[in-house]
Amino acid sequence: MSQASVETRERLVQAAIRQFGERGYEGTTTRQLAEAAGANIGSIAYHFTNKHGLYLAAAAHIADELKRRLAPPPLPAPTDRAGALAALHALVARMVHTFTEDDDCRQWLLLVIREQVDPGEAFELLQSRAFAPIQMTLSTLIATLSGRHPDDRGVILETHTLVGQIIFFLVGREPLLRRLGLSAYDPATVAEIEALMAAQLARYG
What is the pTM assigned to this prediction? Predict the structure, then answer.
């Protein structure tokens, strides 16, 4: 594939994330997608077969990028409490910085929320490639620290609660910034959020 073709494909995926997020699947046409990407309509068929294929490619891109940003290094999972606690703190800090500082996450949010409300094939991509691996990593660390199994119902609920607290700094970004009198998260505020989340983890230490 030529460099120009690679660049066109990337522009289409980025345009799809924006257009599908703002308009929804049914409200987005192939012409709108092509125009937003600065490409011709035929390039959608060439790279993705059809609009549905481009939609799935957009979801896959989000999933893979989320996993790349949040997945821990490929090391053996810690089995001792000290190692598990350090790994949990590191992952939570990475999540905080990603969801407060990464502008890409703000671009992805609308499409992800649409799939949460009405799960379809794209949601399954997001779930299998990003949500489930990250949730399982967190659950395994929490289970190690609490002497339970990662599939224990309580562990699953604790994991979901922890993730929800962090993600709300992205989902509820604007109300919080208004209350704080900020236009964007600054380093001091991110550090405060990270400290608050670290305090939440004290129960495991």
Answer: 0.90
